[in-house]
User: Fold Alcohol dehydrogenase from Thermobacillus xylanilyticus.
Amino acid sequence: MKAAAFATFGGPEVMELMDLPEPQAGPGQVRVRVKAAGVQHFDCAVRSGLYPGNVEVRLPQIPGNRRSRWNGPTKPIG
Assistant:
């Protein structure tokens, strides 16, 4: 899948379009093909490395979380 992500911390210039493994839906889950997603202040702080110490960030990182606003069609339930 293609994803806007970052592999190093920094400003907006560290964002790049990456090819990442396509996730599979598990039991009772759906997969969503995201067509649009919002960017929040927290996303910018994480990308910049200015996040609270209790937040684990694995690189490469796709900004956002399950509370982020996104839109797209669902895929079959796992």
